[in-house]
Design brief:
- The protein has 299 residues and is an alpha+beta fold.
- The protein is 34% helix and 24% strand.
- The longest helix has 27 residues.
- The radius of gyration is 18 Å and the shape is globular.
- The structure holds D-MYO-inositol-1-phosphate (IPD).
- D-MYO-inositol-1-phosphate (IPD) binds next to strand 4 and strand 12.
- The site of D-MYO-inositol-1-phosphate has 16 residues, from strand 4 and strand 12.
- GO terms for molecular function: inositol monophosphate 1-phosphatase activity; metal ion binding.
- It is an enzyme of class 3 (hydrolase).
- Belongs to the inositol monophosphatase superfamily.
């Protein structure tokens, strides 16, 4: 069967706007004190009524437009639907990426719509409704951003990334994630220390990056690396729906998506990144917690 990726991308962009509208409406109810949220695993892992309602809306619209496509969504997964990734056209969706932000009214929240064909992410749409930032990418056709200030889509990266002489010039995002048990937290803390620490000031292996950010949305971290406003994003513990759209948008903007912190750190100072690009969604992303890193290739 032939699939028309341009048409699917147009559909996905329209869908992201509808989902964005639902997220805004859900947020308005939140401030009226009507919308509830539940803890999934612990107090740092939340799901809201709006997550579930938005996923249902998106899933229903896709089923109507593309009845034969497969669907993998964060909330369907949480509800016990275990769809394996196959060669079939598959939507991989996070209805609200940045749920904690959503619950607190912190505007770094988005819908993340990824589309995978023959196990390869080929379309990505990320829409942040509070900011009205829309990112979309199609394999082989580049990534684009539209904002209220610049409604006409502009190709990413917005400016050629400056070659970074070292990590000391880099703005790096990393996330704390919701898994804070001692062994996992110890790994994260060691990595954070290594990324931020001053080796001249006694922190062994410290990279002393220029700045660090934890904005609370994996998808928007990818989008900002793609746009060139972050140099690197590192996290342990992402899921396919957090990263699927971002992988397309970032790669189409010339970023490397690599699988470990060390690979990412190495790639910042050389063109080693080349050999370490993922061409497929790593299948283990569907089942587990992984390292995911993105950077703009600056050299
Ligand atoms: C989470 C956010 C968070 C990241 C987690 C994600 P959610 O997604 O992107 O920043 O640290 O790894 O799972 O739960 O808000 O959809």
């Amino acid at each position: 069967t032939m699939i028309d990726l341009e048409e699917i991308q147009t559909f996905a962009v329209q869908l992201s706007k509808k989902a964005g509208q639902a997220i805004l409406e859900g947020s308005a109810r939140r401030f009226e004190g009507l919308s509830g949220f539940d803890e999934k695993k612990n107090t740092a892992d939340l799901v809201t009524e709006t997550d579930q309602a938005t996923e249902k809306l998106v899933k229903d619209e896709i089923a109507r437009a593309y009845p034969h496509h497969k669907f993998i969504g964060e909330e369907s997964w949480a509800a016990g639907e275990e769809n394996q990734l196959t060669d079939e056209p598959t939507w991989i969706i996070d209805p609200i990426d940045g749920t904690t932000n959503f619950v607190h009214g912190f505007p770094f929240t988005c819908i993340s719509i990824g589309f995978v064909y023959r196990k390869e992410p080929v379309i990505g749409v990320i829409y942040a409704p509070f900011l009205e930032h829309l990112y979309h990418g199609l394999k082989g056709s580049g990534s684009y951003i539209s904002t209220p200030q610049h409604p006409a889509p502009r190709r990413l990266p917005l400016a050629e990334p400056l070659p970074l002489p070292s990590l000391r010039q880099a703005l790096v995002a990393f996330e704390w994630g919701s898994d804070r048990k001692s062994d996992i937290l110890a790994k994260k803390l060691r990595s954070f220390q290594r990324i931020t620490g001053d080796s001249d000031g006694g922190v062994e292996g410290g990279q002393m990056v220029q700045g660090v950010r934890s904005m609370g949305s994996a998808a928007l971290n990818f989008a900002n690396v793609a746009a060139g406003s972050l140099d690197l994003y590192w996290e342990i513990g992402c899921w396919a729906w957090d990263v699927c759209a971002g992988i397309v948008i970032a790669k189409e903007a010339g970023c490397a998506v690599v699988g470990s912190r060390d690979a990412a750190l190495a790639s910042l100072s050389s063109s080693a990144a080349e050999g370490q690009r993922f061409n497929d969604i790593p299948p283990e992303l569907l089942t587990g917690r992984k390292y995911v890193v993105v950077r703009a290739i600056a050299d």
